[in-house]
Every structure is written in structure tokens, then in C-alpha cells.
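tl;dr need the bound structure. longer version: we got a ligand (magnesium ion) that a collaborator sent over and nobodys looked at where it sits. i said id run it. heres the input, straight from their email, havent touched it
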Amino acid sequence: MAGPLKTIALLGATGSIGGSTLDVVARHPDRFRIGALSANGRVDELLALCERFRPDTAVVADEAAWPALRDGLAARRLPTRALAGAAALDEIAADPANDTVVAAIVGAAGMASTLAAARAGKRILLANKESVVLAGDLLLQAARAGGATLLPVDSEHNAIFQCLPADGGRQGVRRLLLTASGGPFRGRRREQLAEVTPEQACAHPNWSMGRKISVDSATLMNKGLEVIEARHLFGLPPERIEVVVHPQSVIHSLVDYIDGSVLAQLGNPDMRTALAYGLAWPERIDSGVAPLDLAALARFDFEQPDLDAFPCLGLAWRAMAAGGSAPAVLNAANEVAVSAFLQGRLGFLGIPALIQACLDAHPGGPADSLGDLLEVDAATRRAAGALLAGMDRR
Ligand code: NAD
Ligand code: MG
């Protein structure tokens, strides 16, 4: 028996994670209903989802898109309420009508709504890793104080969550081993990366994802953000977290125990597995993901990450070691750099160069106030924008 119906607020419904979430939800109408959906500005896509999933509320983050949302809902004779703006995202995240929040907005733009869900004590399926990097301590504190349950759906963290002791403790855990695919440019040397294009960077060999995380996977910054995410979510010090490149992306991550046992979670590279796990936890439900065919895979490979060709991973370790507000600088500089790269204003090797310049210029600071962290985030975006203007396109 499925138990009481869970009502879901899906933040970032028009994205890659949003679509995978809705695919799983649609398979289980006896378990889940959609209470709220949000998009940034793609009103037509959001309206199509409203027609299909009949949420109580639909939100566009971009206020200029609100009239189109309101009129589109009316034209479709849907009773869905139309809201707009950042405060509306916080409102659906904290709404007592929704018990589950899927945090699938990309970037620091997802920070406030994720925090609002934490304070309101929701079951949070956490995809928005940038908010953990920016303000992990505050997010975990808010979740504790609000009685929220944080369920990691980043595939690596979901794997680790599944492999840690079932009592929630860390007894006997030696290390966490995060796997990385290596991205589309694995095996290239640094000088072979100068000319790569956004299209090449977004063509991930195993995963189909939004453009920002696809570029992060190509630079290995994604793994850097994930190491910081793991440190916060699982409370282990940096020296007990390691990264290993595993090009097949089938072993999603591993936990190494002191008796020599290493537990891993495997599966086809499809985010619906992690999302189904988060949606139904502690139960298991069908996700639509095909069973793993090990004989067809034939082999697993492993190698060390190449920190010379992909300096972003090293920069993330550096920011994590510095602590305080340094990860907020890392994240903001990366968001600016990736956006500039996607727009053709910065070369691929300019991404780590810009982030490093921002980290070099940062005097350091604490991470215990949200206001201070948001100020660091904003100041870094301004500084990165100014640096960008003076940088060679490569
Ligand atoms: P995406 O670009 O496909 O979708 C992003 C969603 O966020 C869209 O619905 C968009 O409308 C919304 N959005 C964008 N900017 C916004 C803003 N300023 N305000 C409000 N909403 C905004 O991204 P994605 O690939 O689905 O990734 C979402 C998050 O999940 C990211 O943090 C990413 O790192 C994480 N994640 C994604 C995957 C994956 O497979 N795609 C895997 C692990 C983690
Ligand atoms: Mg991941």
C-alpha cells in the first residue's frame, strides 16, 4: 500500500531534473500529486505542465512573465493560481499544503527557496547543489531547526546515502569515494582544451543534463562542488573524501569501511533512480529505469582525475580547505564564468582562470550569516564581471 498521498512542490519544473521528477511522479498517481510547479521564464512549457499535472499553484521567477502565465491558465480554464517572483518561490517551498519539495533550480538562484523549505520542515529532494556550496552550514542548521529531511538526489550523494549505515550514523566509515565520469574531454591535455565549444562541452557521454551542470561536468567543477556538498551533507572532513574517475558512470559512488568492505550503489546513468528513491524513501518504487545489464557493459574502468587539465577540481578543494566564505566565492565566480562561456564571451580555459582570480582576490570571511554570504556572492559576481571585461576571449 502506498500510504497517504504526498503533495509535491517542484521548483525548476521545466529543467532536466524537473522533467525526470515528473516522469517518476506520473508513474505513481496513487502516491504523489503535484501541488506547485515553478519555472524561470518559459511560460509555454510551464503551461503545458500545468495542463497535464493540474497543480494548485504555478510560479514564474521572472515577474515579467506573470501576465502570460495568468492569461494562459485562464485560456486553458485551469484553476491553478499564478504567482511570480522570488518571494513566490519561497511561498510554495514553505506552503503547508505541500509536504515534499524538489529543489531543482539551477545555481544560487535556488538558495532562498531551498532554505525556506528547510525552515518549514519539508522532505527536501536536494538537487540544487549550489545552495549547499554557498551556505551548507546554514542550510543544515535550518533543516535541523525546522525538522526537515534532506534527501540528496545528486546521483553520487544519493549513492552514498544508500551505502551509509542505515541508522544514519557514521560508525566504521573510513572514506567516501565519489565517482566522476571525467566528462566529454577526459583524456585531453590542457592545451587541447583551448578551442572547445559550448556544444562540445554540453555533449556529455553518459548523462543528459542542463547546460550549466554539463559545462561543470566538462571542467570537473561539478565534482568540486560535489565534494563540498558531500562534506556538508555527510559531515566528514575533506581528507576522508576522495574522487575517482569512472568513465562508465554506472558506479554512482562508494563508501569505504574500516573492515575493508566497500559498498557501492550501481545503476544505469539516469536521474530517475535517485529521484524515485527520494520520492518514496524509505520505500522503493518503479522509476522507469531499465535494469542494469552487466554483461553488456563488460567492464568498469577507474583512473585519477587530471588536475592539470582540469584545475577547477583543485580550486574547489582549495576553497573547501579555506572554508568560511571561500566556497561562496568559488560558486559565484563559476556561475559567471560558465554563463560567459556558454555565451561565447570566454574560452574554456578562461573558466578556471576567472575563478582562480576571484579566489586570489578574496580576503576570506565567515560563513555564519546568510546576509554576509549573499553579499560575498553579489560582490564576487561584480568582481568577476569586471575581470571578464578585461579578459582575452580565451
Ligand atoms: P536545467 O537548466 O535543466 O533546469 C533549471 C531549472 O531552474 C529550470 O526549470 C529553470 O526554469 C529554473 N531556473 C533557472 N534559473 C532560475 C532562476 N534564476 N530563478 C528561478 N528558477 C530558475 O538544470 P538541471 O540540469 O535540471 O539542474 C538543476 C539542478 O540540479 C542544478 O543545481 C544541478 O547542479 C542539479 N543536478 C542536476 C543533475 C542533472 O542530471 N541534470 C544531476 C545532479 C544535480
Ligand atoms: Mg552528480
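gonna send this back to them w/ a short note. Residues 12-18, 39-40, 42, 61, 104-106, 109, 127-130, 154, 207, 209-210, 212-213, 271 surround nicotinamide-adenine-dinucleotide (ligand 1) (CB under 6 Å).
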